[in-house]
Design brief:
Layout lengths: L9 H19 L3 E4 L4 H14 L8 E5 L5 H14 L3 E5 H7 L15 H12 L3 E3 L8 H5 L3 E4 L27 E4 L7 H11 L10 E8 L6 E4 L13 E6 L12 E2 L5 H10 L4 H5 L9 H7 L4
Parallel strand pairs: 1-2, 1-4, 2-3, 4-6
Antiparallel strand pairs: 5-6, 7-8, 7-9, 9-10
Helix pairs in contact: 1-2, 2-7, 7-8
């Protein structure tokens, strides 16, 4: 009898690597957590965790650091998806850090996005997490391209890009002293296109703002001709702004004050895949207002404890 064999696709290889990494976290770490925001990358992480550990419960809770200024469609999806999976969701808010005085805004209108680092470090200390699993990918921007899959953080939550552990032959070292922790990125080697192709293959549900819809925007200066800032109560139009209502979608989601949509009519995953394949601008370059100040912005934030 002839045995039929199946050729593994690139998504099969990426999936297998990510599942291996998640199981390494479960095997080596005493108290990990998986960062889940309701965004597309963390949605993929949830599916990978299902494949790694079901029918058992996940060997870690879900953790979200909420600025208090997230898109409501994403927060609703976050809560619903965690409930559907029956997994524990821990939410810690930048607003709580503001109430404690550990986060102080320069002005009421300052973006809270950069201050998530403080709240994350406080959550890690509160729960004694020794590893946090995140959905960052190397193709997003330069600082993330420098980071290891198992990224060591010292007792102050700091990251030193010049002092990282080797990762030869897919061997990972998660050993830490008390107070230290590891950030783990199972889909580090994925691209934005890989993520969308995986979403299509797995039939994953997403928050509605990932698909084309009409929204009021104003145009801000940025790469590729400009960034689109949505007009909201947190980001109102300023004097002299020209408000337009156009068809947009979000390539990435985050704090309303710094996450911009892109002009698009793609309302299916297949159409988004086609747009992504043709894009010449990274998703953060096209959509993140907070990353435009300097090329070193993200690296400095990661050194201070950011995701």
């Amino acid at each position: 009898m002839l045995l039929q064999t199946r050729t593994l696709t690139h998504l099969d290889w990426l999936e297998a690597e990510a599942i291996h990494i998640l199981r390494e976290v479960a095997g080596q770490c005493a108290n990990p957590a998986l960062l889940f925001s309701g965004g597309k990358d963390s949605i993929c992480l949830l599916r990978l965790a299902e494949k790694a550990f079901r029918p058992s419960r996940f060997p870690f809770p879900l953790l979200h650091i909420d600025t208090g200024h997230n898109y409501p469609e994403v927060i609703e999806f976050r809560d619903r998806r965690a409930a559907e999976l029956g997994e524990r969701l821990i939410v810690r808010s930048v607003e709580d850090s503001m109430a404690r005085g550990t986060v102080v805004l320069k002005s009421p209108t300052e973006s809270r996005n950069t201050h998530q680092s403080v709240t994350l470090l406080e959550a890690i200390e509160e729960h004694g997490f020794d590893a946090c699993i995140g959905g960052a990918r190397r193709d997003e921007e330069k600082a993330r391209a420098k980071e290891r899959i198992f990224s060591f953080r010292d007792s102050f939550g700091q990251w030193d890009p010049k002092n990282q552990r080797p990762e030869l032959w897919n061997l990972y070292n998660a050993r830490v002293h008390p107070g230290e922790n590891i950030r783990v990125f199972p889909i580090s080697n994925w691209t934005e296109l890989d993520v969308w192709q995986y979403i299509e293959r797995e039939g994953l549900e997403l928050p509605s703002i990932y698909f084309a819809h009409r929204r009021q925007i104003v145009r801000r200066r940025g790469p590729g001709g400009g960034l689109l800032q949505p007009v909201t109560s947190l980001t109102p139009a300023q004097d002299g702004d020209v408000v337009e209502e156009i068809s947009v979608r979000f390539r990435t989601v985050g704090d309303i004050t710094c996450t911009a949509p892109v002009e698009s009519t793609a309302n299916t995953v297949a159409q988004i895949i086609a747009e992504t394949a043709a894009s010449t601008i990274t998703e953060r370059g096209a959509t993140r207002l907070d990353d435009q100040a300097s090329e070193a912005a993200m690296e400095q934030r990661k050194k201070e404890g950011y995701f």
